[in-house]
């Protein structure tokens, strides 16, 4: 049961922004946004052919500026948001915008693969997510499993809820929340909770994590000093509504039950430098992916705090006779939290990691030097979870 | 010859008399066998078998005429003398006979007179006999009457006693001569009981009863009042017992009375010291308790065993009651003592407590002697044991607070740059404190203390109490609290000063290498710990201490790294790198970083050894250093629009791996200065790198970074184990900032050097 070797794809630019194409559930597809100050930035659409272990790529131009964050619409495959830096008059401005991919990017690439490299198509701007009052967007969040009409952008110390209208060509701010306090507060990251009818948002600023109710735009909880240093990323457990994972500059990954913000439920310290990204697997929430600037990607199996702490519960009927014995043996094994594996294919800091939206056993990670690595959950673990 | 015969006459007769006597008495004559032939000789003129004829013949045959003549004259002479002797004898005997005849005649006359008198006497006697018979005949009737009368008299006396009894009792009552009253009543009781069917006696009995009831009442009253002395009291009880008062009730009353007296146990006032308290408790309570027990036993148990009460199982009952009573009282006393002991929190002078406990324990032995089956002494021992364990606990907490206090002191003294002195004084004062605590605790096992030979104090107290819960716990506490410094401080940067972390780390390391084994050996020697139960081995503690030391040092590195990182991060984040002016100096923050690093180096150097480093190149600080110095960087940034189709990924990664080895930023450090410094510098530079990557630079921004990095390069190499590490990371920073630069025009190396040297 040898695991497939990781597949590596090299971008010629440095890159930080990575997302799975959320609305796409058949093909394994990731979007990568590049960071280059000198050249036109690109969005690489990476298709992974699982059977042949081959990567297909398409490049779209993103001429507005270097991409710091990218988000794919959960409803429309072709729509995405980016946060980018625009330099003009020796000033660097952070902006956010909604884009549409040209409709023929796929067909075009197939017909004339050579052209795509030399003459890439350009993204079509749908609307800006900025107004005069609020700029410096850190990230844009789509409403999880929504109809692609609502996004939240985090700009400085404001959280803006936008309604996209007329095929996303117009965006209006429907409500805002402002983080108030001493000093210059700034949201670094956020996550829209898929639970509670998508009415909650979690944000990170400095060392604190805050929860917001989007109906009233008011704070509902606050984890002060969630991490010893800056909190870099958050993710909600897709199956347990109160569970939240966070990571930060103290090299730790912490798991919280937001009903009790005093103590983390669990804390991991596997990385030897800042942890930049934490992601729950969309289906099997015991699988947690963390990316760090120690150039490592770590896949952990957090069984004890997952929605299936006793393993996959199998009905008797599902068991085929031949498997009976095997099943019993397995159920007796104590399930422990453990690091499944550490991936060391990257040479530089890994700033992003994402699970595929199509294949729950597959994930991509992106390091600063532009290397995208596609990996799979080890087969042994996969079968243990499934069977 | 003649003389021989004459001389022999005397003895010869005697011989004959002898012979005859002998014959008579049946004695054989063998003893005289020599004489016999002589006497049998017929020629012996004095012998009984003398034959004159034979004698004459013999003479004639043997002797000459002259001799015969001589014999004849001699014989004639002898015969003559014999005749004259015989005549004299006859005369004499005649005179005597005459006088005897006279006497007899005289006697005959006297007897006649006597006979007359005897006749007279017998006549008189007969007369007397007759009179006497007559008198006795007349007196016969009166004698019977007198006997009867005297009987009546005694009865009357008794009756009188009975009739007088109430009055007498009353009198006694008045005079409070209870004993006499009871004695009188006891004498009359049976009679009264027997004749109670007669109305008069019934009356007396009733009266007596009434009086005795009153008496009993009074006795009880007296008994109850309790003012009386123990002797009075016991007398009361004795009397009451004789009055058939139920013994059980009496026991109860006696005990309750005793209890009321004993209730005045001194309450524990905290202003008296423990020894005084125990003393008072012993003197007042234990002594009176012993007194009560003694008198009680005297009264109800020993006494009752002798008397008729024994049959009623009183001793058992009384014993049971006594035990319950003593237990109850003792329990209350003990609870008081325990409360008092618990108040004894100050650990300054243990000897007082030990002495107090000793006295307490010793005095309770008296109770053991009096009441062999009582649980009281055992409970007492348990109290002592509890007190001892409590004491050990207090010592532990005292040690702990002492430790924390010393840490606070150390914290305040940290400002002075004398870490080694601080360390040695801290460690010495802790050691001294441990020793003094051990000495204090040792008092519990001193030989002159009565309870020290209890099995608990010989075994468990030493091994579990002192070794485990005092010494081992303290060491564990030290490690534990050290670890806590790491955790609590982890949240918000540094409530713990880094120097303290460093100091504690060294302390733990010292503990690991020597102190722990020293302390444990000391304990084992002092207390002769016999390891019956499993005890924590030295190695476990050492491992724990080492772990704590490692953790502290790691944390120190982290904290110091963080402090420098924060400076670097702020300096990068708060600056507008696009619109900055051309660099003229090294930024102040870099100087600050170097200064801080140097002072950290000094600080660590005070406590830790240098450690090994790789050999320096001769001109480490002068190394040329430019944006594109690394071939790796060149390869990366030169690529602009090269086809980025899936290339031979293996080759690419291999190339990369050739040039870099992975650096673990937050990793464990070794116990030496170089390793610590390397760790701190790694953390700082990595932060620098990550911050740079988040910014956009203008031309002068990049140049400023170049200058800064060169400056760091000049000073930081000397602190780390491998200077290539610093080179590599600084390369990376400059490379990254070049890449984040809108107008990457690097500064001339010579200019950079000039600026840096200018400082």
Structure characterization notes:
Chain A: Pfam families: Beta-prop_EIPR1, WD40. Chain A: Residues 7-299 form the EIPR1-like beta-propeller domain. Chain A: Keywords: Repeat, WD repeat. Chain A: It comes from Dicentrarchus labrax. Chain A: Residues 323-336 have a biased composition (Basic and acidic residues). The complex is a heterodimer of chains A (387) and B (759). With 387 residues, chain A is mostly beta strands. Chain A has four helices and 29 strands. A five-stranded mixed sheet of chain A has the order 2-3-4-5-9. In chain A, strand 7 (79-88) and strand 8 form a beta hairpin. Chain A is globular, with a radius of gyration of 21 Å. In chain B, helix 12 runs antiparallel to helix 13 (419-442), helix 20 packs parallel to helix 22 and helix 21 packs across helix 23 (749-758). Residues 1-11, 29-36, 489-494 and 617-650 of chain B have low confidence and may be disordered. The radius of gyration of chain B is 67 Å and the shape is elongated. Chain B has 23 helices and no strands. Chain B is mostly helical and 759 residues long. Chain B is 76% helix and 0% strand. Chain B has helices spanning 2-25, 35-40, 52-62, 65-175, 178-194, 199-225, 230-242, 247-262, 274-306, 314-343, 350-370, 376-413, 419-442, 455-491, 498-527, 538-573, 588-607, 631-638, 649-659, 673-693, 699-716, 723-739, 749-758.
């Amino acid at each position: 049961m040898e695991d497939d070797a990781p597949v590596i794809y090299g971008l010629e630019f440095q890159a930080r922004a990575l997302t799975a194409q959320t609305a796409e559930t058949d093909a394994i597809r990731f979007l990568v946004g590049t960071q280059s100050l000198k050249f036109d930035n690109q969005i690489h659409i990476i298709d992974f052919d699982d059977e042949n272990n081959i990567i297909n790529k398409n490049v779209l131009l993103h001429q507005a500026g270097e991409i710091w964050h990218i988000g794919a619409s959960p409803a429309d495959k072709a729509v995405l948001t980016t946060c980018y830096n625009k330099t003009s008059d020796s000033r660097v401005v952070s902006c956010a915008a909604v884009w549409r991919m040209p409709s023929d990017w796929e067909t075009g690439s197939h017909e004339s693969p050579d052209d795509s490299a030399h003459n890439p198509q350009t993204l079509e701007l749908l609307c800006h997510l900025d107004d005069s009052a609020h700029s410096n967007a850190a990230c844009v969040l789509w409403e999880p499993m929504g109809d692609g009409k609502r996004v939240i952008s985090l700009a400085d110390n404001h959280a803006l809820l936008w309604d996209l209208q007329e095929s996303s060509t117009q965006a209006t701010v429907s409500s805002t929340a402002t983080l108030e306090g001493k000093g210059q507060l700034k949201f670094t990251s956020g996550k829209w909770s898929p639970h509670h009818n998508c009415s909650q948002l979690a944000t990170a600023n400095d060392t604190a994590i805050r929860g917001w109710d989007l109906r009233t735009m008011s704070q509902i909880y606050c984890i002060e000093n969630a991490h010893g240093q800056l909190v870099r990323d958050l993710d909600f457990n897709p199956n347990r509504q109160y569970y939240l994972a966070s990571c930060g500059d103290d090299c730790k990954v912490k798991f919280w039950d937001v009903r009790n913000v005093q103590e983390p439920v669990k804390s991991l310290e596997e990385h030897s430098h800042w942890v930049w990204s934490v992601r729950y697997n969309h289906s099997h929430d015991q699988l947690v992916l963390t990316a760090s600037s120690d150039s490592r990607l770590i896949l952990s199996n957090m069984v004890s705090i997952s929605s299936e702490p006793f393993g996959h519960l199998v009905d008797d009927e599902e068991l085929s006779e031949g498997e009976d014995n095997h099943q019993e043996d397995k159920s007796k094994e104590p399930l422990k939290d453990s690091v499944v594996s550490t991936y060391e294919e990257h040479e530089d800091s890994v700033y992003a990691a994402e699970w595929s939206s199509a294949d729950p056993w597959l994930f991509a990670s992106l390091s600063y030097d532009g290397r995208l690595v596609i990996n799979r959950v080890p087969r042994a673990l996969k079968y243990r979870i499934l069977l | 010859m003649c003389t021989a015969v004459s001389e022999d006459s005397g003895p010869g007769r005697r011989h004959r008399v002898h012979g005859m006597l002998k014959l008579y008495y049946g004695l054989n004559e063998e003893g005289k066998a020599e004489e016999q032939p002589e006497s049998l000789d017929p020629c012996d003129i004095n012998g009984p078998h003398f034959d004159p004829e034979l004698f004459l013949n013999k003479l004639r045959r043997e002797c000459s005429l002259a001799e015969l003549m001589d014999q004849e004259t001699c014989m004639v002479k002898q015969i003559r003398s014999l005749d004259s002797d015989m005549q004299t004898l006859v005369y004499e005997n005649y005179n005597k006979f005459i006088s005897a005849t006279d006497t007899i005649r005289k006697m005959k006359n006297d007897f006649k007179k006597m006979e007359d008198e005897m006749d007279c006497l017998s006549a008189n006697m007969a007369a007397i006999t007759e009179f006497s018979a007559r008198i006795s005949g007349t007196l016969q009737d009166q004698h019977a009457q007198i006997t009867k009368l005297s009987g009546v008299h005694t009865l009357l006396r008794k009756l009188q006693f009975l009739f007088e009894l109430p009055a007498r009792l009353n009198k006694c009552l008045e005079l409070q001569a209870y004993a006499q009253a009871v004695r009188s009543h006891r004498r009359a009781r049976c009679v009264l009981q027997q004749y109670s069917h007669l109305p008069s006696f019934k009356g007396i009995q009733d009266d007596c009863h009434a009086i005795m009831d009153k008496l009993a009442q009074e006795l009880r009253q007296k008994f109850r009042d309790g003012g009386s002395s123990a002797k009075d009291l016991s007398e009361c009880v004795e009397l009451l017992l004789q009055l058939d008062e139920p013994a059980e009730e009496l026991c109860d009353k006696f005990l309750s009375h005793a209890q009321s007296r004993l209730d005045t146990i001194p309450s524990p006032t905290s202003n008296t010291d423990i020894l005084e308290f125990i003393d008072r408790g012993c003197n007042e309570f234990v002594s009176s308790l012993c007194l009560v027990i003694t008198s009680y036993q005297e009264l109800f148990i020993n006494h009752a065993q002798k008397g008729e009460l024994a049959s009623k199982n009183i001793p058992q009952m009384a014993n049971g009651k006594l035990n319950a009573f003593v237990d109850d009282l003792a329990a209350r006393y003990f609870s008081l003592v325990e409360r008092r002991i618990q108040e004894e929190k100050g650990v300054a002078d243990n000897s007082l407590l030990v002495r107090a406990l000793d006295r307490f324990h010793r005095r309770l032995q008296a109770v053991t002697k009096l009441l062999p089956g009582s649980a009281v002494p055992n409970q007492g021992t348990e109290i002592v044991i509890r007190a001892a364990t409590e004491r050990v606990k207090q010592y532990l907490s005292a040690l702990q607070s002492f430790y924390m206090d010393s840490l606070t002191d150390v914290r305040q003294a940290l400002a002075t740059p004398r870490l080694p002195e601080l360390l040695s004084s801290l460690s010495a004062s802790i050691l001294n404190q441990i020793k003094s605590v051990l000495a204090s605790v040792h008092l519990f096992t001193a030989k002159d203390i009565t309870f020290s030979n209890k099995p608990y104090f010989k075994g468990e107290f030493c091994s579990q109490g002192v070794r485990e819960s005092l010494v081992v716990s303290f060491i564990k506490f030290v490690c534990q609290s050290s670890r806590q410094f790491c955790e609590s401080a982890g949240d918000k940067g540094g409530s713990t000063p880094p120097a303290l972390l460093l100091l504690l780390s060294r302390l733990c390391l010292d503990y690991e290498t020597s102190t722990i084994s020293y302390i444990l050996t000391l304990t084992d020697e002092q207390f002769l710990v016999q390891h019956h139960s499993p005890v924590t081995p030295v190695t476990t503690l050492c491992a724990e201490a080492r772990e704590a030391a490692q953790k502290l040092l790691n944390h120190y590195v982290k904290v110091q790294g963080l402090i420098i990182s924060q400076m670097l991060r702020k300096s990068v984040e708060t600056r507008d790198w696009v619109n900055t002016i051309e660099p003229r100096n090294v930024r102040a923050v870099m100087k600050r970083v170097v200064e801080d690093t140097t002072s950290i180096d000094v600080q660590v150097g005070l406590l830790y050894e240098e450690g090994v480093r790789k050999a320096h190149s001769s001109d480490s600080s002068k190394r040329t250093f430019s944006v594109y110095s690394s071939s790796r960087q060149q390869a990366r940034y030169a690529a602009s629009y090269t086809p980025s189709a899936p290339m031979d990924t293996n080759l690419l990664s291999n190339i990369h791996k050739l040039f870099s080895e992975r650096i673990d930023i937050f990793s464990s450090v070794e116990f030496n200065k170089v390793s610590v410094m390397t760790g701190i510098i790694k953390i700082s530079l990595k932060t620098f790198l990550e911050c740079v990557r988040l910014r956009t630079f203008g031309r002068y921004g990049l140049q400023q970074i170049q200058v800064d990095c060169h400056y760091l390069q000049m000073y930081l190499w000397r602190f780390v184990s491998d200077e290539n590490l610093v080179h590599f990371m600084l390369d990376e920073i400059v490379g990254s900032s070049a890449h984040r630069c809108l107008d990457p025009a690097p500064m001339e190396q010579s200019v950079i050097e000039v600026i840096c040297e200018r400082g």
